User: Fold this.
Amino acid sequence: MTVSRAKACLLLGLLAVLGGPATAQVVMPSAATPAVPAPDTGRDASFVPPDSYTPATAAPVVITAPTPAPVLTATPPAIVAPPAAIALPSAAPATPTVMPAVATPATTPALIAKPVEAASIGTIDPQSIGLLAKAEGGLGADIWKGTSLALVAKLFPTLNLPTASKTLNNLAQRLLLTTASVPEGVSDSNQSLTSMRIEKLLTLGDAQDAWKLAMLAKSDQIDEITLRLMAEAALISPARDDVCAKLPDIVKVHSGAEWQKLLLVCQLRATDTKAAQLTLDLLHAQGVKDDIYFAVAEKNIIGGNKQLPRQLTPLKPLTLALLRLTDLPLPGEIYMHPDATLIPELLQAKAREDVARLGLAERAAERGMINAADLVTLYRGVTFTPDALANAANSPESGPRLHAMLYQAALQDKSPQNRIIDAAKFMQSISPALLNSVGGSIMDDMLGDIPQTSEFNSTSGFIAHIYVLADKHEAAIDWLKLAKRAGIGIPSVTAELYNFWPVTVFAGLESDTDYMADLSKWLDGFLKNADPKLDARTRRDQAASILLLLESDGFNVPEEAWIKVIDPPGNEKRIMPSAVFLERLRSASTTPRHGETVMLCLALAGNAADIPILTYMQSIRALRLSGFTADAAMLAREDATNILASPKP
Assistant:
């Protein structure tokens, strides 16, 4: 079998395993112009190490009782028919629109007279507003260059956010918040691009930035429904005070019953009971039906009843805003499947069951919707007995409560060895997705400062793994060196290093000189299967997936490696990514059309729990070709961790 035929057979075999109906088309790269990296390096010449960009995250969770806002004295206005346009109150200046730099002519000698030239400034599209310039983590002012507005308007509503990938969710947030020129052309959509961006920010759970973006927009750029939904969500975000301050002016224009319900929340927050009662009477007079909303407002807040309604689901933003004013513990069922906009506020509310709130927090952290600081704040808030903490590593607890116990135990233990044991148990008990997102940072916190001495030779590989996951590159490099020396006499340390070797590569910590030799050692060790209970073919499929990720991220994978993992096509049927989307993604990434590339990666990912390897592979390659090298490497590392940390077959 020739080199090209062996590799083609492998790819066709994997696509058949992942494939769906027989009619599905697969776009293969042309054989005439293969992109082969130089033989003496693991990376191609275009590789740029991941930068230090840290995505914007929500403020750390602080579990406190709500603070009353300033008293609103406005009484509800009479109901009038809403006008066609949306009149928003004026907002304070925010992040300015990023404009292209204007070239400055060379200095001209003073004795040479030059005529004064006048130039007109082109009209700035009001939809180009944003909160992120490129220097602040945005994707650039020209991200939509070459992409039609009609295509964006068609695909934007179909994006299922949040995806299962923390990296893609971060990219989605940056795309939605970027200050950029508007796509070219016109569309048939009834919604503006600004309204569509706000809607998708809400599905990501970012109500605060959605409100900020709306306050920058002109009144005709946001339809009334989007404006109201966004204001409702912002009432349970850090922007709640600003919403209540601007709401009296907004309801002068939009005075329907749903807007009056928002006003009632602000009046109750301000403890303006008289105005709130007038609003309630008005809502009842209009025949508005919302039993849960009225029960909480009238019985629990105004009436002081401590018994919440038995039925609180489906939970809505305004109902949650009222529940937070009661400061009563919330039942576990509302933590099961809340909308993304409700999650930050639910995590700050009191819960009748710790495990329900912790479970929601971990699921949110897996997708990057909260950060490590948010999660450990909740871990610290769980109460355990001193005996339970002293024996945390042997505890019968499981799930989120075990994770909280191990975290607290590690922080109060003075013995580095015991902290390592707690961190190891933590790593073994959390999901691959949590390990992939905030797990490394939490375990780094659990370890504390451990000296690099021979006393820790036997655990040096594990400690190095934690620092790699936590993006502590300097510490990771030092512990990797120690682990390689220790591995000479301790085979288990060498085995630990090779177990997570692909993650080290995608983190940018593998040298070009060592790459080829280490790839061969890792692959041989990964495929070696002495346990008869393990499926050798599944092991080869996992190894093949890692090789595909490496090649997609620009690393050279030699032919002998492909031959070791090649298998005939199986009969399994899985969902095949759209051939049209894959081809469009290839085209967008090579032009390049940056915004379209990110949008198509998000569309291909969807919001399923598992993203197909082909989607990861094509998205990584497309992001790298578009210049998003750090995001491509992070996405490859993310999927590699999922593969390596998944339960063994």
Q: What stands out?
A: DSSP finds 29 helices and no strands in the chain. Confidence is low (pLDDT under 50) at residues 1-12, 14-41, 44-122. Residues 192-355 form one domain.
